[in-house]
Amino acid sequence: SSASSSGSSPSSFASSSPSGSSSSASASPSGSSSASAPVSASTAVLRDGTACEFMELRGLGPSLPPFDGAVLAYAKGMLTWHTTHSHCSVCGGSTRSASSGHVRVCTAPACAREHFPRTDPAIITLVSHGTPGHPSERCLLIHQP
Questions:
Q1: Could you tell me how far CA 27 lies from the centroid of its own chain?
Q2: For residue range 132-144, what is the model confidence (pLDDT) as tens digits?
Q3: Cut 0.70: pTM above it
Q4: How far apart are CA 43 and CA 19, in angstroms?
């Protein structure tokens, strides 16, 4: 499913070449990509003339090989982090990218604090009761308010 690129969040796009093969790429929040020509809100044209459509990763992810989906999800997370952490949370000074983009450093000499992206571990668990596959089998479903 396709979705328009929102102005401040990174998007991904899928392309379809004239031969029918598909490829994926990542675009920056400004809507540009190293592989694409000028981009509108929801489409791009690659240098070879291939038309591309911006898509949210949630819709695109299931159709990608697992490794490609993981790389795009990581890239989107890093781009979002860089976009939303342009200032130091300690002193308010601006930050710059360091260590190949894996660290942001405060540019204020008195602070020079290093900032790192969050890492949130996740566990997905199914709690069930009964014989698997039997009509009386049940599972516990909850959500946080």
A1: 10
A2: 888 889 988 887 7
A3: no
A4: 19
